[in-house]
Amino acid sequence: MTLDFKGKTVLVTGATRGIGQRIADDLGRLGARLILTGTKPEQIAELNARAPASTRYYCVDLLDRDSLDTFLRELDAYERIDGLVNNAGINRLNSVGDILEGDWDDMLEVNLTAPFRLLKHVSRRMVEGQYGRVVQIASIFSKVSKERRATYSATKFGLHGLTVGASNDLARYNILINTLSPGFVMTDLTRKNLSPEEISALSAQVPAKRFAETGDISSVAVFLLSDLNQYLTGQNIFVDGGFTNV
Ligand SMILES: NC(=O)c1ccc[n+]([C@@H]2O[C@H](COP(=O)([O-])OP(=O)(O)OC[C@H]3O[C@@H](n4cnc5c(N)ncnc54)[C@H](OP(=O)(O)O)[C@@H]3O)[C@@H](O)[C@H]2O)c1
């Protein structure tokens, strides 16, 4: 059994940092052709200048429907798309009574509506090719929640609902879709939302006694995207060091 992505094209959103960047790096090392996204034009230009011919970065703001529409049209240039990782996500914290309508709308747009629109478009291409592997990056907050995470949980519970529903439509075409739910991972998003004291206190509560590294999440994503996965679909896989079982 080997992990080999030669001849496979995989799209990863939010691949300029954090979890998405690590998944893209690992897939690239395994031979995948990569379609990657980020939001900052200068950074995208720099990354494209350094990227191998098999990798192309696109500037896509998932808050902007026109930006996503343009990107979806650009995808038509690819002969096939074998894998999709809906990874890009945002999190703005507030207690339920203080949630700003704009934050609610933005989080729904980036974390749920954009993944739906990408899945709708890309799954049609996968049906044509009778093959596909999709990973939706949710969170432990797709199963449990915590104060000030009502909006985030609403989007991530919804994302897994999309996975479950779509798995029923797609499995007959050898298109397998799963949710991957990380626990606490050391990324920019985590450093923004948790103080060093909170990180230390939460680490002590995780059975594995540490936060995840991005590689801990990527290795599971790579499996789900690979041909080693032939029969797993519609599931929510928690990569959380045991946290949701405590
Ligand atoms: N970190 C954690 O502990 C943790 C835990 C559970 C789940 N997750 C989930 O894992 C995923 C990745 O998280 P992360 O921690 O790796 O995030 P991150 O370090 O904050 O990186 C976010 C990525 O998404 C992109 N992005 C942000 N806003 C966007 C927008 N409006 N349109 C398009 N792309 C946008 C960013 O692009 P730019 O670089 O251009 O801004 C970046 O590539 C998210 O879905 C998150 O909810 C994270």
What does this structure look like?
By secondary structure, the protein is α/β, with parallel strands linked by helices. The protein has one domain: Rossmann fold, CATH 3.40.50.720. The protein contains eight helices and seven strands; from the N terminus they run βαβαβαβαβαβαααβ. It has a seven-stranded parallel sheet, with helices on both faces. Helix 1 crosses helix 8. The two termini are 34 Å apart. 40% of the residues are buried. It binds NADP nicotinamide-adenine-dinucleotide phosphate (NAP). The site of NADP nicotinamide-adenine-dinucleotide phosphate has 29 residues, from helix 1 and helix 6.
Topology, element by element:
Elements: E1 9-12, H1 18-29, E2 33-38, H2 41-50, E3 55-59, H3 65-75, E4 83-86, H4 101-129, E5 132-137, H5 150-170, E6 175-182, H6 188-193, H7 196-205, H8 214-225, E7 236-239
Parallel strand pairs: 1-2, 1-4, 2-3, 4-5, 5-6, 6-7
Helix pairs in contact: 1-8, 4-5
The protein binds NADP nicotinamide-adenine-dinucleotide phosphate.
Quick overview:
The chain is an alpha/beta fold and 246 residues long. The protein contains 8 helices and 7 strands, in the order E-H-E-H-E-H-E-H-E-H-E-H-H-H-E.
